[in-house]
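Blinded run. Sample ID left blank on purpose so nobody reads anything into the name before looking at the predicted structure. Input follows.
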Amino acid sequence: MSITKIPYQNTGFYSKLIVDYLNQDKTLKPFYNRFPSIDEFAGQIKEKTSNYNSNHRKLLVDVLKGQYLKVNTSEETLQNIEYLSSDKTFTITTGHQLNLFTGPLYFLYKIISTINLCEELAEKYTDYNFVPMYWMATEDHDFDEINFFKFKGENVSWSSNQTGGVGRFSTDGLHQVFEQFSSLLGESNNANDLRELFEKAYVNHSNLANATRYLANELFKDYGLVIMDSDDPKLKTTLIPHIENELLHNRAANAVRETNDSLAAYTIQVNPRDLNLFYLNEGIRERIVLEYENYAVLNTDISFTKDEILEEVQKHPERFSPNVLIRPLYQEVVLPNLCYIGGGGELAYWLQLKAYFEQSEVTFPMLLLRNSVQVVSTKQRSKLEKLNMSLEELFLKQTELLDKKVKENSDLELNFSDKITFLQNQFDALRNVAGQTDPSFIGAVNAQEKKQINGLRNLEKRLLKAEKRRLQELVSRITKLQNELLPNGGLEERQRNFSEYYLEYGPDFLQRIKNGLKPLEGAFTILEF
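Blinded prediction complete.
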């Protein structure tokens, strides 16, 4: 397997905020704790040790053991759960929605990044244990974002009218999805493995949280992955003081708004609401809003006075669900966590949260951009070589790529830059003459220069367009290959499902991905299979 690394910054798929973070731009230093390098974890371990509530360890282990009672898992995972009882054990965490059959490929890359970082830390810090943790977004209610996956360009989707936290959704109707998916797979051994995996996950489990746990456990149990369902009454007791602070003092909103003002040079990922909590119960997950002096649950008849809602928090903390801004705090309160691994969009909103964490007296974790991967087959690599196209060039915008390759393969001079420079020099001389005679002529000279240069640029575009027509076969081959590798002009990891590659490579696909990823290298990974 051939491995090629490209700096994330050179792919064109990351925002200015993330590029500046990766470059450790000093203007962003106030918005994170420590930049993720192997040596920086020493300070993070020390800080988390002093700040983490040790009583949460026993609670965490008890809850995890309860959640794993009916899960057939590995000794590695069970041992990691036991390790969490020790104050020498820390987690590395990623989180994700409960996408149907894992959704896009990057679900796997997030978890593998987490597993590999734990292994790397264990080699460096031999006195400690490091547990890879997948935090399931069971309380999420954005069903339309998770109810499908793409298989060879076709949507495999699940229709349901259920509402509320998706982790509680019944798996009714997923048998029909299984039949649809099964019909697309063929009859190979790998196809049968995928059928069995889907059926055991989604047909044999009663709710989406348990189905997702089964699926992730089957894929990653040999690496000791621990899977957390945060929608748990016992775990929610740890969040009670932070729920109260949000209801009474709008702590998240105030802190994040101030941070957003400081990040005004960037596109803001999340704008806070006055209250950043949902009310969660069977069939509902709706925002809590303050209406006059009462707390109302939108789209319901439920409302509370201040005293009533504080009593509800004490009696039923599980009915209060954090939104995207408070969920990270909940995670860091519950877990002895050192680092969160996420995509660019996730890290963007985490960077909005440091002040909120500081006010809440919770250690802010290190933030690591997950590994991103482009899989290239040997056949596709051969095509790239025949087109004299590098892997780095693959990430150019398609128009830019085609212009570059047509110019390289043309016998004509298609770049008029030197002619434009020559023309500009001539007009500089004309301006000098005009200034010595009648300065009012300078405006006319400038106008004529603009006209002539625009004329040359238009001629350049027309000539390039004509040459593209003449080299249509080359243009077609480049376009087809880039579209294969970057479907719809985007990264394949955001569109393809792992089942396409599993069908071709079998379980070896996961191991090859794991062998190729180095989470602390800060590079986009291209793997040639």
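Unblinding after everyone has recorded impressions. The radius of gyration is 28 Å.
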